[in-house]
């Protein structure tokens, strides 16, 4: 049936109405981020309006809080106190403060011990008996601009922009999946995904904008997936079941050639530890034997240690790594970084002399830290390994007779889902962000908020 001229206005109203609904659906939403990474136990905090004009809500009063205004909050005795713009300190009657205002504003947060960050959006501060709990409310797309560059790197934009786009989609999907079941998300990489506010914003923001609204969904149901990712798969992506115990058809184990021979220390690392030190880490005597029980990927499921007295202990691969992982330290090639490893045992009888028989893997160790500076070594000899305590603890003044263990590993992190270094390599080779996502995640589609798959 042909539409009459009179019906065109009605048709246009329908069309524009549908367009408005779709636009509204695709718009970013405001989210709440609990700031626990740097400010989880902050007793004293200063907040300054860096851009925009805000309002401070305090004890049922609303105070204008324009650019350059400052708020200091702390505690005196058992009560929270505050000071506005260098005025007198006053006791807070309630337990909550809120700084709200313009969408394009930003706030600088710092503590007396030197921790600082700048955040878009609003802040809420709740007194928790002995510290302040800070919550950052902001647009979800602005949140991602503070996630992508710290989970990857702004420097990757030059040759790996497609990898940053893949990271933006994965991070957005993770956010959407998590906020389906809870009201807030944290800024902690140990709990959720890393978020550092405006401090890290840069070239990676282009990847967030280029993929605005894009998420990964299940190929059948259209629901957001658990978009897992880690720094480096070591050449083989892990099955989610082997990491957290729950099967996931979107995060399955498979070879990852794109993560081979890339990533520096994250791609290949080595850790040396003496038999006594290895045993003492788990309440045993000097270790005589190490047996590895592995998954198909090559990652270690369990480590079985047997000491010189015949005592044995089985430890999960993850717990074993945690005993030597360099928490809070710079990643180096002589650090224990993940569960994808194998081990070599060298008895003392093999390590007291010139150490030319050791595999080439020892060539990457930082011998400058491990050598005993009081002795001279031939140019082509290795360190006297009988004196080594571990790669991280250095050497002992005297040798020990029980030998050493050398752990040779690949990859950094749990290995499930997308390998960030592998994604970067794929981008360098010319793959698109869609190619990257479909390689690392199974049975998925790329969709926007209105449900259109890709």
Automatic annotation (TrEMBL):
GO terms for biological process: sporulation resulting in formation of a cellular spore. Residues 1-28 form the signal peptide. Keywords: Signal. This is SpoIID/LytB domain protein. Residues 129-217 form the Sporulation stage II protein D amidase enhancer LytB N-terminal domain. InterPro entries: SpoIID/LytB, SpoIID/LytB_N. It comes from the Bacteria.
